[in-house]
Every structure is written in C-alpha cells, then in structure tokens.
Amino acid sequence: HFTSRYVNIESVKMGERTELEADIFSWINKVRADPECVVLALEGRKMRFVEGNNKMQISGTTFVNTVEGVAAIDDAIEYLENMAEQIENSEKEFDLLTWSDEAAANSKLHVLKNCTAGTTDLLTGSEIEETLRASLEAEGLGAYAESSEYGSSAAMDIVLNLIVDDGNSARSNRLNIFGNYEYFACASNEHPSYGQMTTLLFILSQDSLQAELKAAQAAAEAEVEDPPGWATKSTASELNEAGVITITFTYLMKDGSEEVKEFKMISSQ
User: What is the pLDDT of residue 235?
Assistant: First the structure.
C-alpha cells in the first residue's frame, strides 16, 4: 500500500527533473508556439500504417493496434493547421507554460505509486489528489487537467500520441495541450506492464480559473430560457478534464418549490 506520507515530497522536487520530463515540457511549449512544427512527423506516421488496416508499424515487425487508424492522424493535422492559421491571423495565442515544481512533485509521487504497483490509476480521485490541490492552492494555482500516456519513452512520441488522441472522441488530451492553461508539470517512469507511464498536468492560476468560471456563468445566464419563477441563482463548477464547465441554475417557483437545471459549456480554452 502506497501513500504520500511514505515519501518525503521534498525528495522529489523537480530540481531532479529527468531529461525525458524536461524534453516533454519543451515539446509541449514548442507545439503551443508553432502547432505546425509536428505536422511533418505526423505525415510520416501515416506511412507506417498497413494499407486497409489500423495497425501502425513501430519498428521492424513490431506493430501497435490503433482504434481509428490514419483518420485520427488526419484529424490531428487538420486541427494543427487550423490552430496555426488562427495564430497567424491573431485570432488565437497560446502562452508558453511555466513549470510548477509543486505539481511535478505530486505527479511524480503518483507515477511512482502506479509503476510500483503495476496499476494505471488517475491522479484525479487518488489519495495524492488532496496533497496536490493543497500544494496548488498554496502556490495560488487553481484547477488542473490531467493526461496520461503509456508505452512511449521519447518526448516527441508522447506529445504526438496525445495530440492524435486516438480513440478519444472528445480529444480531451489534445485540448489539454492547447488549452488556456498557464502552468505545467509531468512525471515519467518505467512501468512493469506498459514499458513507460507518463502523467501530465495542465494548470490554471486561481485568478484565471475564477475569470473562466465568471465568463462561463455570464454566457450561460444570457442563453438559458427562464421557466416561470420569481428569482434565479446560478453557480459554476470547476472545469472538468475535458474543459467543460457545468453551470447549475436553481429557480424559485411561485409555489415556493425549487427547480434545478444544468447547463454545460466548453471553456474558452
């Protein structure tokens, strides 16, 4: 049984960032600054698929099964080209992310736990999440989104796999990379079942989180159709992993009862 109290969190602060983790951080910022910088690499991946098959060649006679095949790569390329066009037209801009030592230390604890036990648990919902949230709050940071990648031990491959996001119809890992986040952390370690496990965290400051929620709440209030009632109140939840904000409206009806409705919307990321 593993809990964070068994490991001194100071011992995994990111003065000990590995070369792989540093390279992942670098590639994340590269694609945010220039989304098209990996298009050529993705085009090369398409050539490694067996015709009419969703198997992609890794090396020699080694193949990996994919869900969508070439279609997911084409979708990723289209997305990257669209992002690049928006940046060129000054319609969108992605700030470079800043490394968070606190988040990195907690993500490393999480990865070490999974790699020791051979599990694939998410940090979100784990016993380490409480420590992570307390660490983020102490640093003035707010909500975070989590991505995980298994099997790759090269930084560029890890980032490309998350951008392609094969089999994930929401493309939430891709959206994390190109989200309206400000801070970043990751941890990677050898995994007994999958070769390598990498966890990546994309983080908002408290100020930005509150601005996101306030904007989403105002947008929802402008669009929702009020049922008959005397008054309404609304609350906004934190962003979930897919960047969705849930607005809950509570209506006070004329008979004194309350009617609750939810309104979901994608954040501005």
Answer: 65
At which residue do the structure tokens 């690049």 appear?
84
Structure tokens of 151? Answer: 């099997």
Give the whole-angstrom CA distance, residue 197 versus residue 32. Answer: 23
Give per-residue pLDDT as tens, 159-189.
999 999 999 999 999 999 998 899 999 999 9
Look up the pTM and report it: 0.77
Q: Is 208 helix (H, G, I), strand (E, B) or coil?
A: helix
Do residues 184 and 203 lie in contact, with contact meaning Cβ atoms separated by under 8 Å?
A: yes
Beta-carbon contacts of residue 141 (< 8 Å; ≥ 6 apart): 100, 102, 103, 183, 203, 204, 205, 206
Q: Are 243 and 145 in contact (CB under 8 A)?
A: yes
Cα 227 from Cα 244, distance rounded (Å):
24
**Region 131-160: what's the mean pLDDT?**
90
Token representation of residue 67: 């869900």
* Residues sharing a CB contact under 8 Å with residue 95, sequence separation 6 or more, in sequence order: 32, 182
Gyration radius of the chain over CA positions: 21
In the DSSP assignment, the letter for residue 8 is: -
> Which of 32, 201, 220, 221 has the alpha carbon at shortest distance from 126?
201
The number of C-alpha atoms within 13 Å of 93 and in the hemisphere containing its C-beta is 4
As to burial, measured by CB atoms within 10 angstroms (0-12 exposed, 13-18 middle, 19+ buried), residue 50 is exposed
In the chain the beta strands, taken as DSSP E runs, fall at: 55-59, 62-65, 98-99, 141-150, 183-191, 195-205, 231-236, 244-252, 258-266
